[in-house]
Design a protein that fits this description.
This protein is of the alpha/beta class. It has 13 helices and 15 strands. The chain binds pyridoxal-5'-phosphate.
């Protein structure tokens, strides 16, 4: 009865998460509070999910109104919020048709099914999908196979077949891996979970051209980069390399569990019976997501993320003088990583908790910053200040 929350978790919850030692109870904007009343500046933002910060009034209002009207119907009927959100995404994306999902992995699964069917119908049964080393596409069996990292998938083999992995940011490797059996290439515009790996300018465009030459589907997993995160509504816009198939999720609902995959007309191969979902695209989630996406677009938050991201990365990079163990600052918009010399990321993250800052160790040697797109310049400055104190602590402990 008097157990602490971590004790309750240990007793009742499947132990798959390595959780930070705090129980979050409330959030507003870029701030969250834990059960002990401590305040944190949240630069994790639900892992690049809370694009408008915590509990943005636009989202809360839309959810509250929809919750009192119609929450769920299944997809056996037309519902208004779903169709309004579909229209909004199609009109702003350059793709033609959308299907909603409950998560990023489901959105990618949809892309994989599109590629398989496309190959079967239009490419003589080709079924192989070329993916990148260092990618992350999700935790279901199909998306684990696409991820291709034995650290995630080892215990669950055998996985679905038909995935080939080549080095990221290397178009020649994709060309060499292409065979009669290839039906699609699937990439992240920036590898998020892989460490915020930013490819060279022109990479996506070159892959797009190769796919056109060979008749392959060019598929982008924009689950992390989409909806303004990297300074454009979609990550591909940086390179002008429009995909045939695209997965979205994280930032789409500013905290709501909703994703989508979108297809160009020529990849609209799924027909009745091919795919479905009980929960996905519910009136409640779609109303919330519609409010969030419309706000992001009308307030020009992608452009704002671009400007603030440049400012933020400049301030982080300037810390290299004071802290020589900072190797590199990289990113685009408000998806940013700081690479450290040695496996210091968790130490810095823990020290940052003491300074009231949440950041994420995206890999043992790198921190990831993904604040809400609504973050203010003052909050960026405050993050830099808190991070400086955390780095000082880690630096002095290490020397
Ligand atoms: C987070 C992520 C996923 C998986 O999303 P879930 O909602 O956790 O299933 C897939 N692809 C990319 C690029 C991601 O960042």
């Amino acid at each position: 009865m008097a157990s602490s929350w971590p004790e309750l978790e240990k007793q009742y919850y499947l132990g798959v998460f390595r959780r930070a030692p705090m129980t979050l109870v409330r959030g507003q904007g870029t701030k969250v509070w834990d059960s002990a009343g401590r305040e944190y500046l949240d630069f994790v933002a639900g892992i690049a999910v809370n694009s408008l910060g915590h509990c943005h009034p636009v989202v809360v209002k839309a959810l509250a109104a929809q919750a009192q009207t119609l929450i769920h119907t299944s997809n056996l009927y037309y519902t208004v919020p779903q169709l309004r959100l579909a229209e909004l995404l199609v009109k702003h994306s350059g793709l033609d048709k959308v299907f909603f999902t409950n998560s990023g992995a489901e959105a990618v699964e949809g892309c994989l099914k599109v590629a398989r069917k496309y190959g079967k119908e239009k490419l003589n049964g080709a079924y192989e999908i070329i993916c990148a080393q260092g990618a992350f596409h999700g935790r279901t069996m199909g998306t684990l196979a696409a991820t291709g990292n034995p650290r995630y998938s080892g215990p669950f083999e055998p996985l679905p077949l038909g995935f080939v992995h080549v080095p990221y940011d290397d178009v020649e490797a994709i060309k060499r891996a292409t065979t009669e059996k290839t039906c699609a290439v699937m990439l992240e515009p920036i590898q998020g979970e892989g460490g915020v790996n930013v490819p060279r300018d022109g990479y996506l465009k070159a892959v797009r051209r190769w796919c056109d030459q060979r008749g392959l589907l060019f598929m982008l997993d924009e689950v992390q980069t989409g909806i303004g995160r990297t300074g454009y509504l979609f990550g591909y816009e940086h390179d002008g390399a429009e995909p045939d198939v695209m997965a979205l999720a994280k930032g789409m609902g500013s905290g709501l569990p909703i994703g989508a995959f979108l297809v160009k007309e020529r990849a609209a191969v799924l027909v009745p019976g091919d795919h479905g979902s009980t929960f996905a695209g519910s009136p409640l989630m779609c109303a919330g997501s519609y409010a969030a996406v419309r706000h992001i677009i009308s307030r020009k938050l992608p452009q704002r993320a671009r400007e603030l991201g440049t400012y933020f990365m400049g301030r982080l990079a300037a810390m290299r003088e004071e802290f020589p163990f900072i190797v590199e600052v990289r990113g685009r918009g408000l998806l940013v990583a700081m690479e450290l010399k040695g496996e210091l990321a968790q130490k810095v993250v823990s020290a940052a908790w003491g300074e009231g800052l949440l950041v994420n160790p995206v890999k043992p040697t790198a921190l990831r910053f993904a604040p809400p797109l609504t973050v203010t310049r003052r909050e960026l400055d405050s993050c830099v200040q808190r991070l400086r104190r955390a780095l000082q602590r880690v630096g002095s402990a290490g020397s």
